[in-house]
Amino acid sequence: MYFPYFRGKQYELIALREASEWLNAKSVIPIVEPVRSNYNNLINCISTIHSNKQKLGLVINPNLGDFSQDSFDKSLFASLETDEFHGTLIPVILLNNSTTLDTISGIFELFDNNHFIIVHNGINDYVRSFLTGNNDRIDYHVFDEQSSKSRSYRSRFDMKKRVILEDAFIHAQKNAEYPEENYFSDLCFYYNEDNYVGFGDYGVVGKVFSDTGGPAYAVAIHLTYQKEKDQLFVRHFISDSNDKPVNVAGKFNEALLKFVSFYQSHETILDFSSACKELLDLNERQHYPGLGYLKKLTIQHHLELINKLVLENV
């Protein structure tokens, strides 16, 4: 099982919405953590996912963007978990080091008819007894690899429900500083051997959340690909004219030409990707769609890649 983790930014939701047409519903359960108090884009995404008979994990106590620590909009999930979206949404609880027993038990009581996904974003032995005592209401325990490192802690939860969540994308301080490529992950090939029933990642966005943007000195296209039989790498196509934050369209074309050259020499391992074909079309038409749209395509490509690998290894 694959659990891609998204924040509810516009182009992440658009990428997920479009991908729901072909994601394998039996092998993929996306998780979305809302970061905007305006839910219009989120509701549109959920509606499409429901139409495509997919499932979606929705974090009900988000703590990034427009939301504060351990806060959640009680009305959001209640308003969405209606007959219209019945069977689509799974409530997700973020659990960190300071989450209290009162908070967890209160959520369980509020959503007394639901099963949950627990995302362990820290080590919290204080609520462990409550969670193990309510094991029948928990579908999955998702452990963030960095913030819940303790194997001893993870081992205390049901082995048949354990999922490992990896932040495999290595951020550079500036786009111009990315190497040509670097190792990404082998988790999708070995999670079963590590005694997990599923795995997840933060894609080519990474776990680090930023709510601000700056002028684009350099444009980067981040593309994951299967370099070895059991290894994924990420290739970084970086623009050349990076001294000033001007002519972003020109910078995009510089990065795009590098992608096209790479695609032509690796077509046999990339021809499954509709996102790659759209990048090729953008080059053919000499069209600049905007940086947000570029982000959507790189997210979509990564979903296509992992969806393909999961199906091949079922």
Q: Can you walk me through this structure?
A:
- The chain has a domain at 1-166: Enolase-like C-terminal domain (TIM Barrel, Alpha-Beta Barrel).
- It is built from eleven helices and eleven strands.
- The protein is globular.
- It is 35% helix and 19% strand.
- It has helices spanning 10-19, 40-51, 74-80, 101-110, 128-133, 151-155, 187-190, 248-265, 267-270, 274-285, 291-312; strands at residues 5-7, 31-33, 56-59, 89-95, 116-120, 138-144, 162-166, 181-185, 198-201, 220-228, 231-238.
- It starts with a strand and ends with a helix.
- The chain is α/β, with parallel strands linked by helices.
- Strand 10 and strand 11 form a beta hairpin.
- The mean pLDDT is 92.
Task: Give a short overview.
Helix content is 35%, strand content 19%. The chain has 11 helices and 11 strands.
Helix segment tally: 11
Mean pLDDT value: 92
Architecture per CATH nomenclature, i.e. the level-2 architecture of the domain at 1-166: Alpha-Beta Barrel
Low-confidence stretches: none
> Could you state the order of secondary-structure elements as H and E?
EHEHEHEHEHEHEEHEEEHHHH
Q: What would you report as the Rg, rounded to the nearest angstrom? A: 20 Å
**Structural class determined from secondary elements:** alpha/beta
Secondary structure elements and pairings:
Elements: E1 5-7, H1 10-19, E2 31-33, H2 40-51, E3 56-59, H3 74-80, E4 89-95, H4 101-110, E5 116-120, H5 128-133, E6 138-144, H6 151-155, E7 162-166, E8 181-185, H7 187-190, E9 198-201, E10 220-228, E11 231-238, H8 248-265, H9 267-270, H10 274-285, H11 291-312
Parallel strand pairs: 1-2, 2-3, 3-4, 4-5, 5-6, 6-7, 7-9
Antiparallel strand pairs: 8-11, 10-11
